[in-house]
Amino acid sequence: MKPKFLSICCLLLLISVSGIAQTTYSISGKIKSAKGAPLEAATIFLAGSQRATITNAEGEFTLNNIEVGTYDLMVSMIGYAPIKRNLIVRDAPVTFDTVMQVKPVMLAQVNIGRKVDRESYLKTFIKYFMGESANAKACKIMNPNIIEFSTNKSELKAYTEDFLIIENPKLGYRVKYLLRNFSYDRLRDATFYEGESVFEELPGTPEQQKTWVTNRLLAYNGSMMHYLRALYADNTRDQGFLTYQMLNTLPPIEVTPNPINTEQLISRTDSNFMQFRYKHRLYVLYDKKKAAADKKPSTKESETMKLDDKGSIFMMDGEVDKRGSIAQQKALLIQNFWGKKRIGDQLPIEYVPPAADPGSK
């Protein structure tokens, strides 16, 4: 009887494990030129992820084991205009076929010829593109020679035809970034950039791996990814976030005296997606001690706050999946703490905090 009982237990365990297994799907397709010829070796990747592949001789590609969620799929090939398409994986495989157009040759407004000029522009680019955190300062661009610079009065512009290769020794990632546009205006001290990244794990010793686990968690805590995941799980306060409605737009900021119930910010689309739609600006503060304090509700009409180092001004209209990825956004405003985060502090969408940090997933 004992072997039979053991077999039944094993069977029940197998059923239990398979029942909670994550359902995944594939994204596949075919890439052609404008003349109808298949394009071989085009790079296909999911922006902000660790998933990438290239097309075969027939221009075909497949990305397997894709979880339900929203993704920006990128198609890139030197000499062709990159293609970006938002895809939502819900309950079936996704097919994406597209045609790539030859990229027109762009002439820079001012040719950066002198070596001293290029070194100066590269230094400015690194500062405002990578960021100024400890993680960012440790990063190294492995192929800076591919960056094309131009200037227009007080504005520095840059782009790349191919991937920038960035090594981040603090977080243990090699980041490939397709920079479509970068500009820095020194008179307004304003930075704008757009592009897409794909992540690879760096090889490391057990000691390095341990350090990366710690540093990644530090980068994750208080991040926008952390907040959106906590919002989806309905545990923002447990995770250390306080969310206030802003009553003005300029510092010092006026906010509602009591944190708002974040469940009112969203509507649940289904078990994997939520719709974030709130007409007012929010001030999101990451402070575990304040969030844990059992403070009595205030009767004041408003409260004046200074912008905290870990406080973010936030406004969004869009759909968000359970991993904190934003899809179909109609409006997005990010300022202060989250707004200062740059490439050097980014984590891939696959990142999951260690189990020792309960409730962070």
Give keywords:
about 35% strand, carboxypeptidase, Immunoglobulin-like, alpha+beta, globular, Carboxypeptidase-like regulatory domain-containing protein, six-stranded antiparallel beta sheet, about 20% helix, about 350 residues
Report on this model:
Pfam families: CarbopepD_reg_2. Keywords: Carboxypeptidase, Hydrolase, Protease, Signal. InterPro entries: CarboxyPept-like_regulatory. Residues 1-21 form the signal peptide. This protein has 361 residues and is α+β, with helices and mostly antiparallel strands. It folds into three domains: 21-100, Immunoglobulins (Immunoglobulin-like); 115-201; 224-340, no CATH class. Helices cover 19% and strands 37% of the residues. The chain is built from six helices and 22 strands. It has helices spanning 2-20, 115-130, 134-138, 206-220, 224-233, 288-292; strands at 24-33, 43-46, 52-54, 60-67, 69-76, 83-89, 94-95, 98-100, 140-141, 148-152, 155-159, 164-168, 173-185, 190-201, 241-245, 253-255, 266-268, 273-277, 282-286, 303-305, 311-321, 326-336. It starts with a helix and ends in a 25-residue tail after the last strand. The relative contact order is 0.12. Mean pLDDT is 88; it is low at 1-20 and 108-112.
Q: How do the strands and helices of this protein lay out in sequence?
A:
Layout: H1 2-20, E1 24-33, E2 43-46, E3 52-54, E4 60-67, E5 69-76, E6 83-89, E7 94-95, E8 98-100, H2 115-130, H3 134-138, E9 140-141, E10 148-152, E11 155-159, E12 164-168, E13 173-185, E14 190-201, H4 206-220, H5 224-233, E15 241-245, E16 253-255, E17 266-268, E18 273-277, E19 282-286, H6 288-292, E20 303-305, E21 311-321, E22 326-336
